[in-house]
Amino acid sequence: MENQREKLVSYLRDQGKITTSSGNIKISLVTGLFNILHPGHLRLLRFSKECSDILVVAVMGDKYNTHPERVDEKTRLDFVQAIDWVDYAFIAYDEPDSLIRQIKPDIVVKGKEHEKQVNIEQTAIDEVGGKLIFSSGPSNFSSAELISTQKGISRFDCIPTEYLGRHNVSQSRLREVCEKFLHLNVCVFGDTIVDEYINCDPLGMSQEDPTIVVTPVDEHKFVGGAAIVSGHAKALGAGEVNYFSVVGDDEIAIYLEKSLNEYDVSHVLFRDDSRPTTLKTRYRSRNKTLLRVNRLRDHDISRLIQQSILHKFKEKVERADVVIFSDFNYGVLTQDLVDEITRLCLKNDIMMVADSQCSSQTGDISRFNNMTFVSPTEHEARLSLRNKEDGLVVLAEELRQKINGKHVFITLGEEGVFIHSRRESDGKVMTDRLPAFNSNATDNAGAGDCFMTASAMAMAAGANLWEAAYLGSIAAAVQVGRVGNLPLTNEELVNALKSHLMSGYD
């Protein structure tokens, strides 16, 4: 029988799954039906990946699936392919022992429940010199990890079928929009932030004073602020992304520039000796943030730096399809700079969107005029309008009129997003609401950035208001299912769309 191992290794090298030049690649194989993915499956797959360089999963074809509530083989394959631990998955039409003789895996992993049974694969495993391992995976695998897209699968709490029907939103159309991201040129302006996560083990309470005592276990840094918006845009498939910002002359700026290079984001970073690169350090334990320490200065950048940013933008403006303002009110997006960039965009018919984040009483989303949409939180919208009383419809319309904008997305955290617009043809107010797709968030940081970026690119690629809001909501759901800001890829977004097949929609 033909040896498929070498072909598989060669294919995975071409796909970038294998980066080492070593020929000593260890492959693990898991076979199964995977009618419904559950925590046991995920523990097993995670363990299998940790035992090898490459994890191959054979999803047994429909002829082997005798379960009365069975799911078709293509859908089951989609489920498995959405898991980042899996390097290669396929529909298997041969018996497991035949697959083993073809692939020649180093390890075959089965669930612990099979350990005391007769395993017909053993003979084939012995023939190819492999090993059979039984495991249910680590027992401390947390439920939060089930929605981690760093090393897992995205899950959604609900599917808004009525919303989809009202606005004729289809998955095929959304996938078509995602494919068009490739042709977009995106420019991002805003404040650079680096997020540092220090994970700790809790030791207890200090005997000297009422202080929680922890010990650091590991540290991770993530690109944040407007910089991760540019990372999202590139990973989502934009052909060209240009990022304009200001940083300090320090090691954090060096880390940032290295990360942007890895993300393939073109960047113009102006050094400002009067400020450090903004660093936000979070001390976390058991998926909760205990303390956050911010190192920053928020005075306005100099007029000279503003003019330098404008000069560089003029070199890119004719190729831009969409400009994203990601404002954290740390002094980069001065009003003069925003107005000049806006003027250039209007002159060149470039779509603009904006988000202005504030944690207390600083920030004003209404200073961004002529935007295709703005996406403030309810607090930010009320703060900018000094309106604490009116409902969301009145609030959103007041904001839309003040900025002379087309649409308003008011993000509501665990309650989802409120969508507001006014139809140009007859002036009719149009509103709707999407629930949060992931209410069991691991880390809320970056949800708004992800929503804005995906929604903006969707509109620039031809999506309507309702399609853009839906894609943005899916992107935000994936983002909050993992710790730290990481660029959301086009593949992750499309895989998240595929998971909606579980609902029977489309």
Describe this structure in words.
There is one protein chain. This protein is α/β, with parallel strands linked by helices and 506 residues long. It has two domains: 5-141, Rossmann fold (3-Layer(aba) Sandwich); 161-503, Ribokinase (UDP-N-acetylmuramoyl-L-alanine:D-glutamate ligase). Helices cover 33% and strands 24% of the residues. It is built from 16 helices and 18 strands. It has helices spanning 5-14, 39-50, 73-81, 96-103, 122-128, 161-166, 171-180, 225-235, 251-262, 303-314, 335-347, 378-385, 392-403, 447-460, 465-479, 490-498, and strands at 27-32, 54-60, 88-92, 107-110, 131-134, 185-190, 192-205, 212-224, 240-247, 266-271, 278-285, 288-295, 322-327, 351-356, 373-374, 407-411, 417-422, 429-434. The strands form three sheets. A nine-stranded mixed sheet has the order 10-9-6-13-14-15-16-17-18, sandwiched between helices. β9 (240-247), α9 and β10 (266-271) form a beta-alpha-beta unit. α8 (225-235) crosses α14 (447-460), α10 packs parallel to α11 and α15 packs across α16 (490-498). The longest helix is centred in the last third of the chain and has 15 residues, at 465-479. It is globular, with a radius of gyration of 25 Å. The two termini are 40 Å apart. 43% of the residues are buried. The model is unreliable at 137-154 and 501-506 (pLDDT under 50).
